[in-house]
């Protein structure tokens, strides 16, 4: 199931890249956080901050320094978010986020 989701996401990305739609500036942490907050599962603000940084490729240590929290807290927030979302990996989180439409929760 995950493989087909990743394939579909990759095909969408490639189509957008070819047509130029969706091209532009990379997603910022703020935009990632907004998309995470739009998920219907209701992540907390801190869970969104932590997950946005994970998606952006920031390490657990880097996230802890950036948010001025402990590494164990970063891990806990990420685990809680994954549990709420019914996922178990960063790859699944990225795939899920690709399917979120801006403004969907408003």
Let me know the number of strands.
0
Order of helices and strands: HHHHHH
Low-confidence stretches: 102-106
Report the total helices. 6
Task: Characterize the largest beta sheet: strand count, sense, and whether it forms a barrel.
Answer: none
Distance between the termini: 29 Å
Structure description:
The protein starts with a helix and ends in an 8-residue tail after the last helix. Helix 2 crosses helix 3 and helix 3 crosses helix 5. By secondary structure, the chain is mostly helical. It has 6 helices and no strands.
Key features of this structure:
66% helix, disordered C terminus, mainly alpha, globular, 106 residues, 6 helices
Please give a quick description of this structure.
The protein is mainly α and 106 residues long. The protein has helices at 2-19, 29-37, 45-55, 60-67, 71-85, 90-98.
Write the layout of secondary structure elements.
Elements: H1 2-19, H2 29-37, H3 45-55, H4 60-67, H5 71-85, H6 90-98
Helix pairs in contact: 2-3, 3-5, 4-5
